[in-house]
Design brief:
Helix content: 40-55%
Distance between the termini: 18 Å
Number of helices: 8
Shape: globular
CATH class: Alpha Beta
CATH topology: Rossmann fold
Radius of gyration: 17 Å
């Protein structure tokens, strides 16, 4: 039985860990040829190793997705390796400094915006150019529960609201041209980023767990399955 993404070419940013790694693995399981991208080469190469060890196809491309040249090279390498780009999961992100709104420095604010919002737009820009050339594709952006409500920090929350707005606009612009654009907006997921917050503040972990109706946090694989479906 063919997988849902049989013979498709997929690109995943922030694929060195967490949701990105789980998505790359799930996409490969469903038959996609996966381009794994991360700013951390060791982590990205480990994701490739996991994919290939399970019989999948994957290549690693190092990229800082806040830089135009890196993003252009990333998309070009995907096309060079596999001939096209059918699916993209723009997942790279960061939590940023945990402070109140008035305590942010301009540098910390700008960094969160660059990684969480500008980079998503930059990746989409060049993915869309390629998908328009070939006549279609699917893009999934990683938003957050913070895309929908207050919570977290001002910079993170604002950036994730921006991701959802950007996703809606792109879906509106390109839906009639064969390109579907969606976002996943997870709650608390057991990623290295989230677990790092918990390690610094165990009280936060207990508080957040108490709010979960099913009394557990999501696993990266839970979100990956939704991304595969949307692709």
């Amino acid at each position: 039985m063919a997988g849902m993404l049989e013979n498709k070419v997929a690109l995943v940013t922030g694929a060195g860990s967490g949701i990105g790694r789980a998505t790359a693995v799930a996409m490969a399981r469903e038959g996609a040829k996966v381009v794994v991208s991360d700013i951390n080469s060791a982590s990205g190469l480990e994701t490739v190793r996991i994919v290939t060890a399970n019989g999948g196809k994957a290549e690693f491309v190092h990229a800082d997705v806040t830089k135009t040249a890196d993003v252009q090279t990333l998309v070009a390498q995907a096309v060079k390796a596999y001939g096209r780009l059918d699916c993209a999961h723009n997942n790279a992100g960061m939590a940023g400094t945990v402070v109140q709104t008035h305590e942010f420095t301009e540098e910390d604010w700008d960094q969160v915006m660059a990684v969480n919002l500008r980079a998503v737009w930059l990746c989409m820009k060049h993915e869309l150019i390629q998908m328009l050339k070939q006549g279609g594709g699917a893009i999934v952006n990683t938003g957050s529960i913070a895309s929908l409500q207050a919570g977290g920090t001002a910079a993170y929350n604002t950036s994730k609201h921006g991701v959802l707005g950007l996703t809606r606009q792109a879906a509106f612009e390109y839906g009639t041209r064969g390109i579907r654009v969606n976002a996943v907006c997870p709650g608390i997921v057991k990623t290295p980023m989230v677990m790092g917050v918990f390690e610094k503040d165990p009280k936060t972990e207990a508080l957040w767990l108490k709010k979960q109706l099913n009394k557990r946090f999501a696993e990266p694989e839970d979100i990956a399955e939704a991304v595969v479906y949307l692709c």
